Fold:
Amino acid sequence: MNFFFNLKKNQKFFFIIIFFLLILTVVYIFLKEKDKEDLSQVKEVLKTEKDDRPNEPEREKTIDSQKVVKEKLEKEEVKTKSQKKTKFIKEKPVVEDVENIVSDSKEATQTILELHQGLKDISGKNSTVLKSTTKLINETYYSEEMLNMIIGDSWKNADNQTKKKMIDVFEEYIAKNYIKRFSKIKYPQFSNLEEKKVGKYKMIKSNLILSKDEKVSINYLLSLKNEKWKIFDVLLAGSVSEIATKKSEFKSFIKDGDINPLIEALSKKNKILLTK
Structure:
């Protein structure tokens, strides 16, 4: 009796539970059907992608074809490189000519011996050797390279006629300075010619013997011009560069990149250099 009374009393609550369970059942069924539909779509997509891909024999055939083409290209590349290398080897001597090396070394030393002999000839004389000394400087000095290093951009920008004038007054200036110095030295001697390679240049080390107890170290830097080694810098006492000295000396005469004032200044110096 009490059971039915309680059941009736809680009838409303009972129906609520039943209704909630029904809703859960419907939702579960709906979600399950949805999952089946999604799964079916996924399978359809996978099937389509599989159908679009070539079958395995065709795929292997394509890969094999690509390998053959690649190997052929690699062989052609190796063959081309081999031909180029063979051509290079044929054109380049296998062994350098020893006689050329010896001759090359002798020519560098010969330039200095030629200069030294000319300087010895000045001893005890004065302006009477100007012509021969100027010619000596022209034959042993690389004036264009020296002026390029001394003047820089102003030299590069100058026209050929201006360069020719500059070279002439510059070589005369060097010649007269040598005459002025060596005309006062009696029987100058040079010794210990030692050659050293400095990159593409050569250095010839020597000593000017002034007396039994006095000598001056003079090192010459040479560069190759028209198959002859020529002097482009002189290092007095082994370290004082003629290029550095001349650069400092000439700097004030170059006006706005114009070297004509320098040419005029050197011409004036040349006129009085041997008169003092």
